[in-house]
Design a protein that fits this description.
The complex is a heterodimer of chains A (226) and B (846).
Chain A (H helix, E strand, L loop, with lengths): L4 E14 L2 E14 L3 E5 L6 H8 L7 E6 L2 E2 L5 H11 E4 L11 H11 L5 H10 L15 H13 L5 E5 L7 H18 L2 E5 L3 H5 L3 E6 L2 E6 L1
Parallel strand pairs in A: 3-8, 3-9, 6-7, 7-8
Antiparallel strand pairs in A: 1-2, 1-4, 4-5, 9-10
Chain B lengths: L1 H12 L1 H40 L4 E10 L2 H4 L7 E13 L4 E8 L20 H5 L3 E5 H7 L6 E6 L2 E11 L11 E5 H8 L4 E9 L5 H11 L6 E2 L1 H11 L1 H31 L2 H9 L4 H45 L12 H28 L16 H22 L9 H29 L9 H12 L1 H39 L4 E5 L13 H11 L4 E11 L2 E8 L1 H7 L9 H10 L3 E4 H7 L6 E6 L2 E11 L8 E5 H7 L7 E4 L7 H12 L5 E5 H15 L1 H28 L1 H9 L4 H43 L9 H28 L2 H7 L2
Classes of the chains: A alpha/beta (226), B alpha+beta (846).
The structure holds adenosine-5'-triphosphate and magnesium ion.
The site of magnesium ion (MG) has 3 residues of chain A, from helix 1.
């Protein structure tokens, strides 16, 4: 299942300063993600997975090279273009869930729509049902288990029908069974919505479900498997 | 290590947080210190000055209107046991200084044993020069201020008459009370002549020799004195002065107490938030094995640091503020008692220590709440997603019940009578009302959030909805901010209500009660304080110029009525019965005075009537120096110029009991069709070169009265400023905290599609909602407190009944202003939030 690439990283570099030392978090990373494709990023801790994902999610900009997401050049786009990109075309799932604690499940899920000045209660409730939280819609995150929180995050990442979903170790805080269920759900939903999924993980089983696996080490791409 | 993690690191990384807290503490302390220092300087120093000037004298004989000098001879039998010292004392206008000074006429040869300035170990100035002519001793400080030396001449205005005094010598007043810096010391005979009081003394002091028994001396002295005179300790006169100033002083103390309350709330807010910010670190450390006591001690240490730094800054600011406030307090004091209150704020280590103590104690007390929160923090768990702090129905109901109970208590207290003439229950009612704001602010925010939080019902206001939700989630903290802003607003609204009611009432009073065409008074000091009286000759001059039935001189003396000081005054009833004067509610002023004139009756002011329970038809009885005077009261008039009792009789009655030392001032009712401006010119021309007086026409007089009124209220107006500072500091602290706490959430909002503008709008909306809630609640409570102040406190402490006039336009302005201030205060935290890098934050916060 391929199409035109929705995400394209071309010899991307990203450096951080840590005191006087320059950290090369990404070095010449090239990568594409086609429409509807699931790509897994694997590699040891500190190899640059999150850095790459943040670039794709348009919350960070590269120092070198080009990152194009849905035709928008992340390095040169205006702040407004990035915001529009995030709220229309990208969905994000985090390792630590990052739900807004004082919003209910329903409100958390509708947040991307609300921020865009849209509302679609049917879609929101439908998604909540599909992640199996129909009976929890009016609960607050603090009243949910980790798995339920992550399922809420999954619904939130997909509610606005993004073309790309970025998930940074979505199973990292979950036990393996719950984690597997969340991945299954995420995969199933994004397939039915036709979204591409870029996933960072340590979990070999999770990576196994991917169309392609890219392995990073020290900010470089060191291997590809399909 | 724990110290570093909890205290030093956060302090160094976010120094503004500490600074904001310190500013909060400093503001509160400064408000308290400046009120106390200013009122102390003006009031206490005035009263203390009485004893200071009395020196070693243990007993004194004094009488309103003075004593005949011949009394000295009659006291000769006790002169073996006590030094008998004649004293003449008056406040005169020192023209070079542009301010009043105390003119003290003493027996310079005797006085070395009485007063410290002239006593033994100080180098005695050459007395010969002083004894000859009008020579005066002045303090080194005054001499330096005026750049004068022995041999120079000084001009003083006495009863409006300019006189020259020669500086005979300069004395050192180092280490003595500041009172001595504003004293001219002369020989008693010269002072008598200068003041036009030959043969009369203001008091006779007794300095016991050796180990003479004071009580015995007193009994023996009293036996020698004519009826109506007795010896008493100088402290009595001081008590008298203090009683006259009691209500004024109480008001100032109440103001300081209120500032302290506001300061306390502010400190608690800032401290609570700064502790709460570190909950995460605290719980982490706890889970790593730090004991509660350890963590608590760090929090207390921080409170201590904030208290000390804020206290020191506040004390410094307070003394500066006192300097600004002094002019107004001084003016008020001078209009109540004859005399010159201190003109300078001196650094007072005791007061400074008090300020520091207040800051530290308040900071430590304010730390209790956050400490409790810290103690209840479980080791790291459940912290990741703090549950929103929604109020349960039960606690909502409980809060409502408490609020109703507080309202009932406030209403009951407001109806209670004053205690010792002081409106303590009513002010307590006001405090209860204010406290209700703190109790109710949580409920208020919760309700507001519930309203604003109809789940994303409207599409547009996502930012607003998020703000409401966030506020309700951080309710406990936000409630503190809303509470302290609301208290500040309530305070300002109450004061505005009181001031506007006052202004309206006084305006009406000046219109109906000030009918004279011209008003003559001695030249005022540069500070606006009037000094001394008018020379009696000025009355004669006016009567010759405009006719006998035009001049209404007002004579007064402070006398005791039922053991308490009141003003006893004489006015020209034969004149005002034609024109009317002070207003009697519902009656024609001229008619009342006509009756008082025909029946030889008295009129009293409202404070007198309230204080002594006297009404029309009652009789007042005075024991005056020359005998007893009994008069029926035929009217109670409104009087907003004094808070102590005033009884007015016809001047012929007054002058039977007191020598004619001249009137305080004089009203002139010109013949019909005469021009006030022309008349004024004629009068000033007639006295030119002989007297220094001011003559105001009707319009100017009213303006002067209103001006005096404005001045009296300038301190209270300064509280507006405090309000603004409180609002800004509270909102700033709390929002910065909320923003800091919600970094993760804000970053998430950004990551899932929120723009910078939306995050900015969200945080600013939170500030706006806080401000709105605070303004609404504060205005409601403020009006209630204002009504208590106007209708109860004023009546009880000053004896004034005021019309209630709500300053609608300033209330609206104030509410708008508070919300605007909150919005502005919300801007820095909003910018912090908007500038956040979502990727970095999410990484940092996991
Ligand atoms: N803001 C930053 N400042 C300094 N260094 C950073 C920053 N963000 C990332 N790094 C460094 O860049 C490198 C890559 O970090 P990144 O978070 O992308 O790794 P990762 O592959 O996601 O690791 P993990 O599997 O542990 O999540 C690391 O060496 C990290 O220390
Ligand atoms: Mg990572």
């Amino acid at each position: 299942m391929t199409g035109a690439p929705v995400v394209e990283l071309d010899r991307v570099g990203r450096n951080y300063r840590r005191g006087d030392e320059e950290v090369h978090a990404l070095v010449d990373l090239s990568l594409t993600l086609d429409s509807g494709e699931l790509v897994a990023l694997v590699g040891p801790s500190g190899c640059g997975k999150s850095t790459a994902l943040n670039l794709v999610a348009a919350v960070d900009r590269p120092d070198r090279g080009r990152v194009t997401v849905c035709g928008v050049d992340i390095a040169t786009a205006s702040e407004n273009e990035l915001v529009a990109l995030r709220r229309r075309s990208i969905g994000m799932v985090f390792q630590a869930f990052h739900l807004v604690p004082h919003l209910t499940v329903e409100e958390n899920v509708s947040l991307p729509l609300a921020l865009d000045g849209r509302r679609d209660p049917d879609r929101v409730l439908d998604l909540i049902d599909r992640v199996g939280l129909g009976h929890r819609a009016r609960h607050y995150p603090s009243e949910l288990s980790g798995g339920e929180q992550q399922r809420t995050a999954v619904a939130r990442a997909l509610v606005h029908r993004p073309r790309v979903v970025v998930a940074d170790e979505p199973t990292g805080n979950l036990d393996s069974r719950t984690g597997a269920a969340v991945i299954e759900l995420l995969d199933e939903l994004r397939r039915s919505e036709g979204a591409a999924l870029l996933l960072a993980t340590h979990d070999a089983r999770v990576a196994g479900a991917a169309d392609r696996v890219c392995e990073l080490a020290d900010g470089r791409l060191v291997g590809r498997r399909s | 290590m724990i110290l570093k993690a909890l205290l030093l690191r956060p302090l160094l990384r976010r120094p503004w947080r500490f600074l904001v807290t310190v500013v909060g503490v400093a503001t509160g302390v400064a408000a308290v210190i400046s009120t106390i220092a200013a009122s102390r300087a003006a009031i206490a120093s005035f009263a203390e000055g009485i004893e200071e000037v009395a020196g070693a004298a243990r007993l004194e004989i004094a009488s309103p209107g003075g004593l005949p000098e011949t009394l000295l001879a009659e006291l000769r039998p006790v002169s073996g046991d006590a030094l008998v010292v004649p004293v003449v004392e008056e406040t005169v206008l020192l023209l070079e200084l542009g301010d009043g000074v105390r003119l003290l006429g003493v027996d310079l040869l005797l006085d070395a044993e009485v007063r410290p300035v002239l006593s033994g170990d100080r180098e005695l100035p050459d007395l010969d020069a002083t004894l000859l002519g009008f020579g005066a001793l002045v303090s080194r400080r005054l001499a330096e201020d005026l750049d004068i030396a022995a041999g120079d001449a000084l001009s003083v205005s006495i009863g409006g008459r300019p006189r020259s005094v020669e500086v005979a010598a300069v004395f050192e007043a180092d280490g003595l009370s500041a009172v001595w810096e504003r004293v001219l010391i002369m020989d008693v005979a010269a002072a008598q002549e200068l003041l036009g009081r030959v043969g009369r003394l203001d008091r006779i002091e007794l300095v016991p020799r050796g180990s003479v028994d004071l009580d015995e001396l007193r009994v023996r002295t009293d036996a020698l004195l004519p009826d109506g005179l007795a010896a008493s300790p100088p402290g009595e006169r001081r008590r008298f002065a203090e009683q006259m100033l009691a209500s004024l002083r109480f008001n100032l103390v109440a103001l300081s107490a209120i500032s302290l309350l506001v300061a306390g709330v502010l400190i608690a807010t800032t401290l609570a938030t700064s502790v709460v910010q570190r909950l995460f670190v605290v719980s982490l450390l706890r889970s790593l094995g730090a004991s509660r006591a350890r963590v608590a001690s760090v929090v207390l240490l921080e409170a201590l640091g904030i208290g000390i730094v804020g206290g020191v800054l506040g004390v410094a600011g307070g003394f500066v503020g006192a300097r600004l406030a002094l002019a107004s307090v001084r003016f008020t004091v001078a209009s109540v008692v004859r005399g010159i209150p201190a003109s300078e704020i001196r650094f007072d280590p005791q007061l400074a220590a008090l300020g520091l103590a207040i800051a530290v104690v308040t900071a430590l007390a304010a730390a209790v709440l956050p400490l409790m929160e810290i103690m209840s923090v479980p080791p790291l768990q459940g912290l990741r997603t703090a549950p929103p702090q929604r109020m349960r129905t039960r606690s909502r109901l409980a809060t409502v019940a408490v609020l109703l109970a507080m309202a009932a208590a406030a209403a009951a207290l407001a109806r209670m009578p004053a205690i010792d003439d002081l409106p303590i229950p009513a002010l307590t009612a006001a405090l209860v009302a204010m406290a209700a704001l703190l109790v109710g602010s949580g409920l208020l925010l919760d309700t507001l959030a519930r309203l604003g939080h109809a789940p994303f019902a409207r599409l547009r206001g996502a930012a607003l909805q998020l703000a409401a939700a966030a506020l309700s989630a951080g309710r406990r903290r936000a409630a503190w901010a809303a509470g302290s802003v609301a208290v500040a607003v309530a305070l300002a609204v109450a004061i505005a209500t009181m001031v506007s009611s006052f202004r309206a009432t006084v305006e009406g009073w000046t219109t109906s009660g000030m009918r004279a065409d011209l008003w003559v008074r001695p030249l005022a000091a540069g500070t606006g304080v009037w000094v001394g009286r008018l020379d009696p000759e000025i009355v004669t001059i006016a009567e010759e110029l405009f006719g006998p039935e035009t001049a209404d001189p007002f004579y007064s003396q402070t006398v005791a009525y039922q053991g308490r000081p009141v003003s006893f005054a004489g006015a020209a009833f034969d004149v005002v019965r034609f024109h009317g004067s002070v207003p009697f509610p519902g009656r024609d002023s001229a008619e009342v005075f006509d009756r008082a004139w025909r029946e030889r009756a008295a009129v009293v002011n409202e404070p007198f009537a309230t204080r002594f329970g006297i009404g029309e038809g009652d009789t007042v009885r005075f024991e005056l120096p020359g005998g007893v005077l009994e008069r029926e009261v035929v009217g109670v008039f409104r009087d907003y110029s004094r808070s102590h009792g005033l009884v007015v009789v016809d001047r012929s009655d007054f002058l039977r009991f007191f020598p004619d030392a001249g009137p305080d001032d004089m009203a002139l009712f010109l013949p019909p069709e005469s021009d006030a401006g022309v008349a004024r010119e004629r009068l000033l021309e007639a006295v030119r070169g002989r007297f220094l007086v001011e003559a105001l026409d009707n319009r100017e007089l009213r303006a002067a009265v209103l001006g005096a009124f404005e001045r009296t209220f300038s301190i209270t107006t300064a509280l507006y400023l405090v309000t603004a500072v409180v609002a800004v500091v509270a909102v700033l602290t709390v929002l910065l905290t909320l923003v800091g706490e919600r970094r993760r959430e804000l970053a998430t909002v950004r990551a899932v599609g929120g723009s910078r503008g939306q995050v900015l709008a969200m945080v600013v909306s939170e500030a706006g909602l806080l401000g709105l809630a605070a303004a609404a609640a504060g205005t409601v409570v403020g009006i209630a407190v204002g009504v208590i102040l106007v209708k109860v406190v004023n009546l009880q402490s000053f004896g004034w009944s005021l019309e209630l006039v709500l300053p609608w336009s300033s209330l609206v302005t104030m509410a708008v202003w508070v919300v605007a201030t909150c919005l502005v205060a919300g801007l820095p935290p909003a910018l912090v939030a908007a500038r956040m890098q979502p990727a970095a934050v999410l990484r940092e916060e996991g």
